[in-house]
Amino acid sequence: MWMILSDSHDNLKNIEKAIEIASDNHVDHIFHLGDFVSPFTIHHFLGDDHEFIGVFGNNDGDKLLLQKRAQGKILNSPNWANIDGKKIYLMHEPRSLYPAIKSQLYDLILFGHTHRLVIKKFGKSLIVNPGESCGCLSGKATCVLLDPQNFKTRVVEL
């Protein structure tokens, strides 16, 4: 199981809930799509029972310290990964969303920034914006659990 979240904006309560949900659901990969904000939050996402990959958002402050504490696991946005044979495109702001969709190069296209939940299939690509995990703009804090075998998703409220 994979977990996708974004826009945590230093909300430690919801970050801790997300990590608890990840543990309860045997998540082996956590994807964070930016706007951690402060370096003190990053250690919550790192663990021995799952892999972590993230991209920087527009509100991330001390990127050097975030990167150092994340042990190099936060990338510039946009970026890509190949995990378990799945091609994944990750970005915070959806500036390259439509070219990524049109290319049909990716199995999974992930973005954040808008604080709006999106789960849509376009051709071979599943597009996911997990909404905001902080709950500060919409009042609803969410993340998405995804089965990498069949790409079935489940929205989880924090």
UniProtKB/TrEMBL annotation:
Q: What's a Pfam family in this record?
A: Metallophos_2
Which Gene Ontology molecular-function terms are recorded?
hydrolase activity; metal ion binding
Query: Which keywords appear in this protein's UniProt record, sorted alphabetically?
Result: Metal-binding
Domain named Calcineurin-like phosphoesterase is located at 3-149
Q: Which residues form the signal peptide?
A: none
> Matching CDD domains, A to Z?
MPP_YfcE
The domain of life is: Bacteria
Cofactor(s) the record lists: a divalent metal cation
EC top class, as a word: hydrolase
- For this protein, the Enzyme Commission number is 3.1.4.-
What NCBIfam families does the record point to? yfcE
Please report which protein family the annotation says this sequence is part of: Belongs to the metallophosphoesterase superfamily. YfcE family.
User: What is the name listed in the Swiss-Prot or TrEMBL entry for this protein?
Assistant: Phosphoesterase
Q: Specify the species.
A: Mesoaciditoga lauensis
What high-level taxonomic lineage is stated for the organism?
A: Bacteria, Thermotogati, Thermotogota, Thermotogae, Mesoaciditogales
